[in-house]
Design a protein that fits this description.
By secondary structure, the protein is mainly β. It has four domains: 58 residues, no CATH class; 174 residues, Galactose-binding lectin (Jelly Rolls); 246 residues, Jelly Rolls, CATH 2.60.120; 71 residues, Immunoglobulin-like. It contains two helices and 50 strands. The strands form ten sheets. Strands 14, 16, 17, 18, 19, 21, 26, 27, 28 and 30 form a ten-stranded mixed sheet that branches. Strand 44 and strand 45 form a beta hairpin. The longest helix is centred in the last third of the chain and has 7 residues.
Length: 654
């Protein structure tokens, strides 16, 4: 077969990683550091000072000289282009040498590292600092770990530093502040154990994979939610809760674009148990691993109310749960629990997030929270982002808690499989006797995950050598390949290949030859006359006037062209007819190297390859069913393959 045109080739490639590039924060003062904004306040500073004390601890030739000449608040500092994220990486280190001969006064020998927001007019008002003791007259490495070291917040009401993302300045201060004493120090090998800016390998949860916008009115959408109403022990719910969960619309319904989960004071009997309060508990019929959840909601009020937006492992064994019957293999807390939002009516406006794992024995040990504003009358967005390293919780895009155990194991990190969402209001035994009814009103629930693999799309007429080096000669939508970008991050590429093949067979009915491919353009050819076009024969069918060998050139709607094998028509022997119709050439076109497959014919056969003028190029005899031609020296052009003296195929060298 001869295929002459490749069409509609589309290559679409993007790397599925976060936008931007992460940058390390380090300086060895040898000219290869990433910090270029060193500055001194009330302090002399030289970042290219010759190391006056070279030893085994610090053999560097160049250091930063810190020269406090009596400034009241002397320090050295630098700013970074993007804020630090201390949720996972929160440690700063450097080497320091303080000669005792350079100190005056009676200040304690110490060094402080302060984190500030340099965009503020008074950046110290939100700072967080760690102070470490030092010894004089020796190089030493000092480490500041904002997760585990004691820290001081200038504003006692500030969040712990590991939950903040507003720091973009690092300040170093030797022997305290608010004094006029002298200090000389040498600093080297500053390093932050993380990076700033967007990590090129961080997952980006930008594809909405499941949601409920509650844009209807009436009962909840049964294709998305399951009412969990069964009492797990046949008597009551966990945690001393005193309500029945029901599937009635008085306890859960959709109206004017919002889901309402309603806790009510009423006598209600179900499953042989009578209780004085009812509510609803919904399970999502969607479960997932890793992603971001966003829920925009207003919360109920009343002492004793306990609304929650949370998640459980799909593998939990829990009577009446949507997933338990088919997937339940594990008891709580081994299944893992992620509490995105909990609120207690006796602590109005305080929001908490928590994780329950085997290592905490199910107790609420790993948790964080904050006081929010008017959560029962104002919509707020409660978010959780879960990746392989950490789970982060935010309120209105403000991060307030991160869970990132290191190292991970199944005891502290069972979050390696699908979890599903739960929405409910529980009633505690401490419920206010005057409580009548209150609702959790939800505007939307959305789940985002990473985009699907990049699709590399091609439409070709013959075959494709893809980026994996494999030649594909048939359509393929399943092949994948992993590429690394310049930052070393893996990207998954998926092939979407359409090989627009043409049926180049010829059928004979009576005296008429018909191309098997329908709906194309045709040109019938005379194989015995160097494949010359037969004038006027451009239909799908052709009735030769004489015996001979004929082929048809077919061009389909996509522009792909293929030429059939020569078909013997008329008064020839059966053996000759069969031999002409079972010869295949691959690849064709080619670069001078191709194989000729001869099936169901008598061997040996003699073959020759001539150019279009009939000049002999190659001649030989084949003792089996495959002729292997390896002639890269052939010039580009059209050649005629002859088997046993008869022209049977046109070869294109390109």
């Amino acid at each position: 077969m001869l295929k002459q045109k490749t069409v509609a080739t589309l290559l679409f490639f993007t790397c599925l990683v976060g936008m931007g590039y992460a940058q390390s924060v380090q300086d060895n003062f040898e000219g290869t550091g990433t910090i270029s904004t060193w500055a001194g306040d009330d302090c002399g500073m030289d970042p290219a000072f010759s190391n006056p004390i070279i030893d085994l601890i610090n053999p560097s030739s160049t250091v930063l000289k810190y020269d406090d000449y009596g400034g009241q608040y002397a320090n050295v500092r630098f700013d970074v282009a993007a804020n630090f994220d201390l949720s996972v990486h929160r440690t700063f280190t450097f080497k320091i040498y303080v000669p005792s001969s350079g100190i005056t006064g009676s200040q304690p020998n110490q060094v402080a590292l302060k984190l500030q927001d340099g965009t503020l007019g008074s950046p110290w008002v939100t700072q967080s600092e760690i102070i470490k003791p030092i010894v004089t007259d020796q190089w030493q490495t000092v480490t500041f770990d904002f997760a585990n070291d004691p820290f001081i917040n200038y504003d006692p009401g500030s969040l712990d530093p590991i939950y903040r993302t507003d720091f973009n300045r690092v300040l170093i201060q030797v022997n305290g502040e608010n004094n006029f004493d002298l200090v000389v120090a040498y600093i080297d090998d500053f390093n932050y154990d993380g990076t700033i800016g967007s990590s090129p390998c961080a997952p980006v949860y930008d594809q909405l994979v499941w949601s409920d916008e509650f844009n209807t009115s009436g009962p909840i959408d049964g294709t998305k939610w399951h009412h969990q109403t069964q009492l797990p022990d046949g008597v009551s719910w966990y945690n001393g809760e005193i309500q029945h969960y029901t599937d009635r619309t008085v306890n859960s319904y959709v109206d004017t674009g919002h889901l309402h989960i309603v806790a009510k004071k009423e006598v209600f009997t179900d499953q042989g148990q009578t209780k004085n309060y009812t509510s609803a508990r919904l399970n999502s019929k969607f479960a997932f691993t890793n992603g971001r959840v966003e829920v925009r909601a207003k919360l109920p009020t009343g002492v004793g109310t306990w609304p929650a937006i949370w998640m459980l492992g799909k593998n939990i064994i829990e009577p009446g749960g949507y997933w338990s019957a088919a997937n339940g293999t594990t008891y709580w807390p081994a299944c893992g629990e992620i509490d995105i939002m909990e609120h207690w009516g006796d602590n109005q406006d305080y929001i908490q997030s928590a994780l329950h794992t085997p290592s905490s024995f199910g107790a609420t040990i790993n948790h964080g929270g904050l006081m929010a504003t008017d959560v029962s009358n104002t919509f707020h967005t409660y978010s959780m982002e879960w990746n392989e390293e950490s789970i982060k919780f935010s309120l209105d895009s403000n991060l307030y808690y991160v869970y990132a155990p290191d190292p991970q194991d199944m005891a502290n990190w069972p979050f390696v499989a699908d979890q599903y969402l739960l929405l409910n209001i529980a009633i505690q035994g401490s419920i206010d006797p005057a409580f009548v009814e209150s609702s959790m009103v939800i505007d939307y629930v959305r789940v985002f995950q990473e985009s699907t693999p990049t699709i590399d799309t091609y439409t070709v007429c013959d075959s494709l050598v893809w980026i994996d080096g494999i030649t594909y000669s048939s359509s393929n939508t399943t092949a994948t390949h992993i590429l690394a970008n310049s930052a070393g991050c893996d990207s998954l590429i998926q092939l979407d290949l359409t090989v627009d093949t043409i049926d180049s067979g010829i059928s004979q009915t009576g005296t008429q030859l018909t191309a098997n491919e329908a709906g194309a353009a045709y040109q019938w050819l005379d194989c015995n006359n160097l494949f010359a076009a037969i004038p006027g024969e451009t239909n799908q069918s052709f009735s030769p006037a004489l015996s001979g060998n004929f082929a048809v050139e077919i061009t389909n709607g996509a522009g792909c062209t293929d030429t059939s094998d020569c078909y013997t028509y008329g008064t020839v022997s059966t053996n000759e007819s069969n031999s002409e119709r079972v010869i295949r050439v691959f690849p064709n076109p080619n670069n001078g190297s191709f194989d000729v497959y001869i099936h169901d014919v008598s061997i040996p056969v003699n073959y020759e390859l001539t150019d279009i003028q009939g000049r002999m190029m190659i001649k030989g005899s084949c003792q089996d069913s495959t002729i292997k031609v390896r002639a890269p020296e052939l010039r580009k052009g059209i050649y005629i393959l002859r088997i046993d003296g008869r022209p049977c195929h046109r070869i294109l060298i390109k």
